[in-house]
Amino acid sequence: MGDTLLIRAGLLNPVDTDRWTFHREGGLLLDGDRIVDAGPLARFHDHPASRVLDVDGVLVPGFVDVHIHWVQHHVRGRFQSDLMEWLREHIWPEEAGFEVDDFARRHAGAFFADTVRAGTTLGMAYSSPHLSALRLAGEAARGDWLLGNAIMEKAAPEPLRQASPDNVDQVAPLLAELGRERYALTPRFALNCSAGLMHDLGELARRENAFVQTHLSESVNEIREIRAAFPEARDYTDVYDRAGLLGPRSVLGHCIHLSEREHDTLARRRAWIAHCPSSNEALGSGRMDLAAVRRHGTRYALASDVGAGPSHSMLHVMQRFLAQHRQAGETVTPQEALYRATLAGADCLGRGDRAGDLTPGKRADFVVLPAPDAGVAAEDWFEELLAGEARDLETRPLQTWIGGAPVQPDP
Ligand code: GUN
Ligand code: ZN
User: Fold this and answer.
1) Would you give per-residue pLDDT tens digits along the chain (411 residues)?
2) Do 136 and 105 form a contact (C-beta atoms < 8 A)?
3) Which residue has the CA at smallest separation from atom 5 of ligand 1?
4) Distance 87 CA to ligand 1 centre (A)
5) Which ligand 1 atom lies nearest to the CA of residue 276?
6) What is the position in ligand 1's atom list of the atom closest to the CA of 218?
């Protein structure tokens, strides 16, 4: 074995929707950027490691954010009463600025400094339509990121339409160049794309087994506009389904106002929902019907949806997930919140074999959270930590490790 490092610290590891493992005194053994072993510290007494490090805190897998707009990072939290008004008045004019490389470079640096600070080590992000901004973000990325240029062929301000690919022959070479592990096909939402273009993108996605990210059923006004734009479709979900855009590598943001038929379609296509509780709350979009999602067995992972979401911190997203659904009488646990913000996200992004928890063979991506006081149960400690995050959006993990090394937010 080469350069091994034993970290002695607390360990909290997601298992599934209602279980985690917690070791107040745990050990994490790394070899370079990989995890070799993790468990109670007693197990490591006879295990020679090249180095030993004592960390005062609890190690938790790096957070996964499956839906975030890096180009909205610095205008996050500018609430409006309605999605469509917010997009048209605040967001689209802002995104037009990413045509300028210096502006894009500066904001990409700030975005990834903040995701590192927040403990997000894996994610999928929307870029603006500009290809130069997409490439700059790819160069600036810290951690493991999938990115996609928002395709806005129509019903958008002229500068964004001008910058956007408007046929699949412009998109296919990007996918070939960046690869399906890094690049996601990103028809922004159905209002910005014709049925023909979405169909071509759907064919490309199927042929290349590519990720697709888009928005679905977020606001009532948006759905009204979709009905008028696609009278031939049975509903919003059907617009994407007809285009062949729904499959196991499709990640659909929001999915709030779905009918039973639409839920059934998503489940049958094995598509993923990016559940964005803090964003849904901020724009007054409504609450995702968690009971229906569970009933249909649809897969979902948590996401911040910055800039509609006010904070890129997945601790904050977890807190709003618990608060929002509990208020509606649903049973949700901190175990599930952690699972949905880590392992489920890694599965959603096709990285379940490499990331999402602290098990042997996976990449050593984790965060250090402040340890619980003596005698405090793991559940109470974790809930209190999330509540602290909700009171003060600036609460951060003590440290973020990516690929077996601690990273500084500002490079
Ligand atoms: N629908 C289309 N574009 C967007 C966006 O940028 N943010 C959100 N929340 N919804 C969208
Ligand atoms: Zn979004």
Assistant:
1) 578 999 999 999 999 999 999 999 999 999 999 999 999 999 998 888 999 999 999 999 999 999 999 999 988 887 767 899 999 988 999 999 999 999 999 999 999 999 999 999 999 999 999 999 999 999 999 999 999 999 999 999 999 999 999 999 999 999 999 999 999 999 999 999 999 999 999 999 999 999 999 999 999 999 999 999 999 999 999 999 999 999 999 999 999 999 999 999 999 999 999 999 999 999 999 999 999 999 999 999 999 999 999 999 999 999 999 999 999 999 999 999 999 999 999 999 999 999 999 999 999 999 999 999 999 999 999 999 998 766 665 567 999 999 999 998 876
2) yes
3) 87
4) 7
5) 9
6) 10
Q: How far is the CA of 222 from the centre of ligand 1 (A)?
A: 10
Tell me, in angstroms, the distance from the centre of ligand 1 to residue 214's CA: 9
Q: Which ligand is nearest to the CA of 71?
A: 1
What distance in angstroms lies between residue 31's CA and the mean position of ligand 1's atoms? 41
CA distances (Å), origin 169, targets 109, 174, 201: 30, 9, 10
> Distance between CA atoms of 371 and 384, rounded to whole angstroms?
12
- Residue of the CA atom closest to atom 8 of ligand 1: 308
Comparing CA positions, the residue from 22, 63, 36 lying closest to residue 364 is 36
Burial of 299 (0-12, 13-18, 19+ CB in 10 A): middle
- Joined together, the tokens standing for residue 360 give 């042997």
Whether the predicted model's global pTM rises above the 0.85 cut: yes
- The residues, any chain, with a CB within 8 Å of residue 87's CB and separated by 6 or more, are none
CA of residue 94 to ligand 1 center, whole Å:
13
Residue 341: C-alpha distances to residues 121, 335, 347 (Å) = 11, 10, 11
By alpha-carbon position, which residue is closest to atom 7 of ligand 1?
Answer: 308
Do the Cβ atoms of 383 and 389 come closer than 8 Å? no
Q: Contact, 320 vs 279, CB < 8 A?
A: no
